[in-house]
Design brief:
Elements lengths: L5 E8 L2 E8 L6 E5 L10 H7 L4 E5 L16 H15 L5 E5 L1 H12 L6 E5 L13 H15 L3 H11 L5 H13 L15 H5 L6 E5 L10 H10 L3 E5 L7 H4 L1 H16 L1
Length: about 270
């Protein structure tokens, strides 16, 4: 990170303006990092520092997040996947790797399923995959989520960092600033009800043609993907593996960074070979 120049820019993709951060190593294999819900591209800080000398890192802010445009609708995974496809085409990336966490993992999987020609490999970190989809939130629940977003937007950076320290005492200090800033930037429009149901993970996995690394953690600590869902996904995709990282919840990289980045390096290293 210290020896790499970082550039920021905006581009039009799928009809909206997306903000992104990128290092100046365009001769390296491209790796697009897709953040989770309410985060931003800057929240990949630890991963970026670890991988900046090995990959051309592109860290977009998803629609409604960070410094990207926040339209009033279009927050379904397949719509956001088209945002990523547009970013890949606009930047002229040649079959990049996609790595996503949570919402970003769902977006990455949807992009690879819809555009197998654009993606060479996937790293999916605890995507929102369930054996049975949970009941859809009610209109009132969506409104309450939007109110919570507004409340966090109104908090100061120091208040947000204090909240993160209290709720996640094991997170490294370097993670707290980007996390706090992303909460001030998160748009309540992200909390509008989806226009159509989310497809099951099974529908996506069978369409993915590239190699996949699925990173899971402990459901009892808040991780989403159960061992049963991971095993079923592994039985459906064409090529891939599952790496379970114990001692972590949903934010795997923030809670168990060393084994997380080791798994990522090993998988991508094989893809580079």
């Amino acid at each position: 990170m210290d020896t790499t120049m970082w550039l920021e820019g905006d581009l039009l993709a799928n009809g909206i303006r997306l903000h992104f951060t990128r290092n100046a190593c365009s001769t390296l294999p491209p790796l697009v990092l897709l953040h989770g819900s309410s985060d931003s591209g800057a929240c990949w800080v630890s991963v970026a520092r670890a991988l900046a000398n090995d990959y051309d890192l592109i860290m977009p802010d998803a629609r409604g997040h960070g410094l990207s445009e926040a339209p009033q609708w279009g927050y379904e995974a397949d719509t956001m996947a088209e945002d990523v496809a547009g970013l890949i085409r606009t930047l002229g990336l040649v079959r990049p790797y996609l790595m996503g966490h949570s919402m970003g993992a769902a977006t990455a999987a949807a992009c690879a399923a819809a555009h197998p020609d654009l993606v060479s490999a996937l790293v999916l970190c605890d995507p929102p995959w369930w054996d049975e989809e949970p009941p859809a939130p009610t209109e009132e629940q969506y409104r309450e989520r939007a109110r919570q977003v507004e409340q966090m937007r109104a908090m100061s950076i120091e208040e947000l960092k204090a909240m993160a320290r209290a709720e996640h005492p094991d997170w490294p200090e370097v993670e707290l600033g980007p996390w706090a800033e992303s909460k001030q930037q998160h748009s309540p429009y992200h909390m509008v009800p989806p226009r159509w149901p989310r497809p099951s993970f099974r529908e996506l996995v069978i369409k993915i043609q590239c190699p996949v690394l699925l990173i899971t953690a402990d459901p009892e600590r808040g991780a989403l993907v159960t061992p049963e869902v991971a095993a079923e996904a592994a039985s459906l995709w064409r090529e891939g593996r599952v790496v379970h990282i114990p001692g972590a919840g949903h934010s795997i990289r923030r809670e168990q960074f060393a084994p997380y980045i080791e798994a990522v390096r090993a998988f991508l290293g094989e893809m580079d070979a």
